[in-house]
Amino acid sequence: MQPDSETQLLTIQFEWNGVLKSVSSSLIGVSPEFEVAIYTLCYFVGGEENHVEIGPYPVNIKCYRLGDSIGSAFPVAEC
């Protein structure tokens, strides 16, 4: 699967339960299967920092381990 022209990387700032999250990123326009696949690949073959290009966007996929599982995985926009 390839991202298409409708794919976007959105960087947002929000507050959750009174705590400000300074920066967060989310992939918009990709399938859940694509997101699970990219995070799984980064978990198995990468480290915490995985620099990839998704469509026209340079992205760092952060992947943190929790024992033998994925603790957290998310995209970070690179400028």
UniProtKB/TrEMBL annotation:
This is Placental protein 11. Belongs to the ENDOU family. Residues 1-79 form the EndoU domain. Monomer. Keywords: Endonuclease, Hydrolase, Lyase, Manganese, Metal-binding, Nuclease, RNA-binding. GO terms for molecular function: hydrolase activity; lyase activity; metal ion binding; RNA binding; RNA endonuclease activity. The keyword Nuclease applies. It comes from Solanum tuberosum (Potato). The keyword Coiled coil does not apply. Its cofactor is Mn(2+).
